[in-house]
């Protein structure tokens, strides 16, 4: 069976670049693009098919900041026989926050919890001992332990929502490995580096980024994490696609890196996480899952 890869946020930025790069690695890979905007998703699909006419590309509407959307998308995706890789490229790059229609902090729900619910709903497709599956969480070098609190894991009282959500992502990945490795599901965390995408351009005016871009290229001589382009930023995801899931270290974060001469490679660094904290946080996620799904009259994981 050809690998089936589900990518959230696949219509732009790193998600779109990942789709293109995976098809170059394996023209037989079957892609499922999970996006909020079906118009943008269709445009991305057209670009992919123009370069790879025989590619198998399907679309599903998914807004990870809406649990109703997540559940609808999961129901549609469950019609497939398997999902071999799920990559989370959808997210919010902001320290500012608000409340969603689900009554949750927007950054927490978009960057972590919406994806967590999707994974839980897709457990029957993801868990397979004969052909292990891989979750790839998009984290950040800005995932800071100091920004996260178990007593306020949605970060409703703080000013570093993004940093907190990314550290929470690291914790969730560690905990998922503890519970699902024996069922053939593995979880890894990547950092794409500093990438210029629509999310980045939303922080400051576009003309500002154009002015400082030459400086950013020069900084690459001193730091490996200035990947700058979505193509480069997807390096770690592409590398993971080619690895055996069981061979990966659950406590490592895999970084997309670019040398001063433009050569892409993958670096790894141990995450600053404690497995005991990861376990406590995972139980809190399960409690929150039970609460919100009961409110929506939706079932827990169908497995």
UniProtKB/TrEMBL annotation:
Endoplasmic reticulum found in the keyword field: yes
UniProt key word Transferase: no
This protein's pathway: Steroid biosynthesis; zymosterol biosynthesis; zymosterol from lanosterol: step 5/6; Steroid biosynthesis; estrogen biosynthesis
InterPro entries in the record: 3KSR/17beta-HSD, NAD(P)-bd_dom_sf, SDR_fam
Its EC number(s): 1.1.1.210, 1.1.1.270, 1.1.1.62
Signal peptide segment: none
Catalytic activity: zymosterone + NADPH + H(+) = zymosterol + NADP(+); a 3beta-hydroxysteroid + NADP(+) = a 3-oxosteroid + NADPH + H(+); 5alpha-androstane-3beta,17beta-diol + NADP(+) = 17beta-hydroxy-5alpha-androstan-3-one + NADPH + H(+); 4alpha-methyl-5alpha-cholest-7-en-3beta-ol + NADP(+) = 4alpha-methyl-5alpha-cholest-7-en-3-one + NADPH + H(+)
Keyword entries, A-Z: Endoplasmic reticulum, Glycoprotein, Lipid biosynthesis, Lipid metabolism, Membrane, NAD, NADP, Oxidoreductase, Steroid biosynthesis, Transmembrane, Transmembrane helix
GO molecular function, one term: 3-beta-hydroxysteroid 3-dehydrogenase (NADP+) activity
Topology of this chain in the membrane: Single-pass membrane protein
One GO BP: cholesterol biosynthetic process
Top-level taxon: Eukaryota
Localization: Endoplasmic reticulum membrane
A single cellular component GO annotation: endoplasmic reticulum membrane
Family the UniProt entry places it in: Belongs to the short-chain dehydrogenases/reductases (SDR) family. ERG27 subfamily.
Subunit structure: Binds to the short form of prolactin receptor.
Protein name: 3-keto-steroid reductase/17-beta-hydroxysteroid dehydrogenase 7
């Amino acid at each position: 069976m050809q690998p089936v890869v589900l990518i959230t946020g696949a219509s732009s930025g790193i998600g779109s670049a990942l789709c293109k790069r995976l098809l170059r690695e394996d023209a037989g890979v079957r892609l499922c693009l999970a996006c909020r905007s079906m118009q943008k998703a269709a445009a991305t699909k057209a670009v992919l098919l123009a370069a790879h006419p025989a590619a198998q590309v399907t679309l599903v509407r998914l807004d990870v900041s809406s649990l109703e959307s997540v559940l609808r998308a999961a129901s549609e995706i469950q019609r497939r026989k398997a999902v071999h890789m799920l990559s989370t490229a959808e997210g919010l790059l902001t320290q500012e926050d608000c409340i969603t229609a689900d009554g949750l902090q927007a950054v927490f729900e978009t960057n972590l919890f919406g994806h967590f619910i999707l994974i839980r709903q897709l457990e029957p497709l993801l868990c397979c001992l004969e052909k292990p599956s891989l979750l790839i969480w998009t984290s950040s070098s800005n995932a800071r332990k100091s920004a996260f609190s178990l007593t306020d894991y949605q970060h409703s009282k703080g000013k570093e929502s993004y940093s907190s959500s990314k550290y929470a992502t690291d914790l969730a990945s560690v905990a998922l490995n503890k519970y699902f490795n024996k069922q053939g599901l593995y979880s890894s965390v990547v950092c794409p580096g500093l990438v210029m995408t629509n999310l980045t351009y939303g922080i400051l005016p576009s003309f500002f980024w154009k002015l400082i871009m030459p400086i950013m290229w020069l900084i690459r001589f001193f730091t490996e994490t200035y990947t700058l382009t979505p193509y480069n930023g997807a390096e770690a995801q592409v590398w993971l696609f080619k690895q055996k899931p069981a061979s990966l270290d659950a406590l490592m974060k895999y970084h997309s890196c670019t040398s001063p001469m433009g050569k892409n490679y993958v670096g790894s660094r141990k995450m600053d996480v404690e497995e005991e904290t990861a376990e406590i946080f995972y139980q809190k996620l399960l409690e929150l899952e039970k609460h919100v799904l009961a409110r929506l009259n939706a079932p827990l994981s169908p497995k």
